[in-house]
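Marked as duplicate of an earlier ticket. Keeping the data here for the record.
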Amino acid sequence: MNSYFATVQRGLEPVAASELERLGAKEIRPDFTGVHFVGDRALLYRVNLWARTIFRVLVPIREFDCPNSDILYQEIQKITWDEYLKPDNTLAVTCTGGNQKLNHTHFTALQVKNAIVDQQRRKSGQRSSVDIQNPDVAINVHIRQNRCTVSLDSSGTSLHRRGYRQAMGAAPLKETLAAALLDIVEWNTNLPFLDPLCGSGTLPIEAALKALNIAPGLFRQKFSFQNFPDFDFQLWQQLLAEAQKSKLAKLPAPIWGSDRDPNVLTQAHSNAQRCGLEHQILFAQTELSHLEAPADCGVLMCNPPYGERLGDVQELGILYKLLGDVFKQRFKGWTAFVLTGNKELAKKVGLRASRRIPIYNGALACTLLKYELY
């Protein structure tokens, strides 16, 4: 059994902890922007393949006191790096956190890289090249007060980059946040789902992947753990085969996405097609003012502009009022959720929220508003 650390969006630690428990993790302990857990190698692969709400899975290899850069260099040199990294492997080092003496993450990462390649040169006369974009081995260094944790990154690029979304609107939700919202509202996949402001389709696509039990990692080309010296190819192939078999052929209930902009709907169609959902999700070009409830009951969820990046706040006030009017007049029997980062705009909806859930969208403090529509 090994210790792992899943990095997550701030505020989603409990959601990720629940997901890790469902995937079979043990000794789960939420922390700030992450969750500690324990499991075997199969669990490491399974979490990378199946997790919908986490960014990456780190594998800690050493922890030590680290008050300054000299001690950092010395301690990094004590790690036997040829167990993890060959000179013909490329590498990248990222650093998070800091302390009084190590307060510049780029400098800290450079010091770690220097310690690693100096050891390689001393042992073999060769050293790894740095590849920031697509390294064979990614190393994460986290400094908290005077403690340093060195980890291998088993994921590589962030797991929110599923691989299906090449086309994006102007201010898209991260896939991990979209999936977390579905968990937070406890959406029952037997209920119809609608996003009336769907943009490039992230919410409907994540809803469909969840409802069809499709592992989001199936769309990725590569994970960093495939470059680990102890990579178990047969185990990985077995987990991939199990994931393929567990997919459902048909949605339990309809999923719709609509938007007024034909260009972003083209992007949504393209993204859905990349993950084989083009015949599962029903996308339609619809003005919000013309929107009608497509079923007697269901869950509506949307992420309208907040005025942070998209749209003028005054114009957006009209949009939020229209949302409230459409909910009230045409969506009796539904439950609606609106994610917003603007409290003044939220008031324009004109309906009493039955629940207000604090959410971070990146660094922006937002609220997920729940409306029971009777």
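See parent ticket for discussion. The first helix runs from residue 13 to 22.
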